[in-house]
From TrEMBL:
Residues spanning the membrane: 16-34, 54-73, 85-106, 112-133, 281-308
InterPro entries in alphabetical order: Bact_transf (IPR003362), EPS_sugar_tfrase (IPR017475), Sugar_tfrase_EpsB_2 (IPR017464)
Domain Bacterial sugar transferase: 282-466
UniProt topology in membrane: Multi-pass membrane protein
Organism listed in the record: Catenovulum maritimum
Pfam families: Bac_transf (PF02397)
Descriptive protein name: Sugar transferase
Amino acid sequence: MAYTYAGHTHQKIKPLIVIETTILCIVSYIALYLSSLQYPFNNFSAVQVHLSNILIFVLITQFSLLSVGLYELRLRESIRGVSRRILVSVGIAFFLHEGVLLNLVPDLKVNAIFIAIAGALSVLSLTGFRMLIMNNEWFGFSKKDVLIIGAGERASIIEKRMRRKADRRGINLVGFIPLDGDKCKGIKNETVVDINIHEDIEKFVIENDIHEIVIACDERRDALPLQALFNFKIRGIEITDILDFIERETGQVAVNLIYPSWVIYSNGFRTTNHLRESVDYLFNAFMGLFVVMLTWPIMIFTAIWIYLEDGRKTGASVFYKQERVGLDGRVFKIIKFRSMRPDAEKGGAQFAQKNDNRTTKIGAFIRKYRIDELPQIFNVLKGEMGFVGPRPERPQFVTDFIKQIPYYNQRHNVKPGLTGWAQLKYPYGSTSDDTIEKLKFDLYYIKHRSILFDLLILLRTVEVILFGKGR
């Protein structure tokens, strides 16, 4: 059965076009008034000409807004992206009106500054209005309606990972459609849509104006309505795999859902090259030298404090060296300020805890503000670490994690770092479950890493340090 997909969209777009046309008329009249202060009207015919110019400016601007996609409900742009589109569309209108139309029709005179004022006011007013509707979720622009195909084990990951309102910023989960191949009844608190997926899904998608369909079924063979999905795809409805959906919305890769073909065909996980490695090292070396020059008084004061607290009594070094696993599984010795008692690991290697009773008085302070990490800058200068990357773990733990956790060894495809995406996104934890959760963020970083992403993480880390939000 064939269906049309345009009805609901048009119903939402019509009032938006009317409102923005009204805004353009108002700002054009304001521009006409302001321009007339310098170039007053001399007769009635001049008024008619200027009113004609208002009408022409509004119509050309509206067509320009339409041409750059600003009346497409599936447009998923930030306010910055929307403002750029508005600026381009008003620029197009200015060029067509001032540069083309007035040259083709010389009798159509206009005040010298009318179009310039109208254009500037249009950009400001339309951008302000779009900010208002996006922040208040009007006209369906800020949220997309999402339908999940599947209601079993894989689909339940969405419910678990996206419980809070903040986790669903920009999306509205319409419901989950159960399939015969689902391994369990995984959805507990969300809407379950009980329809015949092969016969009724097209009607449901149209009636609910669905923007995106997420494939989250446990068994795909003979379970999916392929013809309907094909129809949705060619009509502009997004079809997304659950792994890509979780990655996009949560900033992590769901390692428990990964299958090899997804890794093979997905974007990201770009291989390094000599140029990238050289740029990375130069960037990290420059940052390292800068931080050393900035923090050397703090490091000297910290070393003296550690020595006075227990170093002179026990003879222990103010520094702590420990083997960690780095790039390609190579072992190196990490350098930190000692924050624990010298006998902290007399019972063997163990994870540090959040409120570890093995820490010294100064140790608790320097761990909270990450001062104990400062000597690792020398690991950075040696090329063993970067400023940003997965935190390096001890060989004893890595051996167990590789056996227990799928894809754990992939985090060694990049240099370890002083700070990382996982440290920003996940609270302090020391269990194997915590390690799995951190790995999800580490894999996301490895897949999407870039200098801009590194800079974002470094900027966010400053907040963590300044406010003592150690992770």
